[in-house]
Amino acid sequence: MKLTSFHIPEMDCSSEEQMVRMRLEGVNGVNALEFDLPGRRLDIYHDTTADALAELLKPLNLGARQTAHEENVSAPDGDRSAMADRRPLMWALAINLTLFFGELAAGLVSGSMGLVADSLDMMADALVYALSLAAVGGSAARKNSLAASSGYLQVGLALFGLAEVIRRFVAATEAPDVGFMIVVSLVALAANVATLLVLRQTSRGEAHIEASWIFTSNDIKINALVIVAGVLVWWSSSRLPDLIVGGLIFLIVANGARRILALSRPSNG
After folding, report:
1. Nearest to 222 by CA among 101, 112, 114
2. CA 35 to CA 152: how far, in whole Å?
3. Is 10 found in the same domain as 36?
């Protein structure tokens, strides 16, 4: 068996780890994957060629480059059960779905595009987790189909959100309810912090737990961005900071959808 290591600089959250897993798991010649998310490293145990692996990773546009290669290595020890793999994904899925519905309702009530966009970011992440759960043990064709459905849904929602941002720029819409906007963002921030605390207590160095930690940390940054937008709306009495932040988050979601759609391209192997 061979071991090839890749440095993947753009793999900095759990959803991107799951996209890499979706791309490689089940491919003929790929025997095991080991992730070091903080180090942006992926070790692949395989019987195919390193060039073939690089071609599989290339469509994800995560900047993967080979850093090491060994021949005649032993298979990794300590394989976990399917339930152990599913458990952190199910936890992350539940958190993100709850925040999606809560922030979407609050965004519509308060008139805040920042909250609506943040809720869509939560849903986009939830879709990646749901996609990974549904594809466990599935065929490559099923994985491609699920990835395409998820990606197109995210693209559609992101484009709709960007169109609404543009409409509000042009139309004489009122500024959002700042108090409601900030309170809901603080609740979402608290939920993500609580998730970090739970992960800290349960973490045993497993890749998925570590990935969820980094992924939730990124969500906290977006929560903070929406809070800053709310403060700027209050300070300026203008709707523009909310619209700018909303548009930025919608672009982030659209970029994530582009990466997911890369998974729907049939892999050779």
Report:
1. 114
2. 27
3. yes
211 has a pLDDT exceeding 90: no
Q: In whole angstroms, give the CA distance from residue 36 to residue 205.
A: 10
144-167: per-residue pLDDT in tens? 676 677 778 778 888 888 888 888
**Whole domain around residue 20: which residue ranges?**
2-70
Q: Which of 119, 121, 98 is nearest to 256 (CA)?
A: 121
> What pLDDT, on the 0 to 100 scale, is given for residue 202?
47
Q: Are residues 64 and 134 in the same domain?
A: no
Same structural domain, 163 and 51:
no
In a domain, 75, yes or no: no
Give the span between the Cα atoms of 239 and 85, in whole angstroms.
44
Q: Can you tell me the mean pLDDT for 128-151? A: 64
β-strand partners of 36:
41
Token readout for 58 is 């290339």
pLDDT band per the 50, 70, 90 thresholds, residue 180: confident
43 and 121 in a single domain? The answer is no
Helices (H), the chain: 14-24, 50-57, 82-110, 113-135, 140-170, 178-202, 207-236, 240-263
Q: Is residue 96 part of a domain?
A: yes
Contact criterion met (CB below 8 Å) for 247 and 126: no
User: Is there a domain that residue 198 lies in?
Assistant: yes
Q: For the chain, what is the domain count?
A: 2
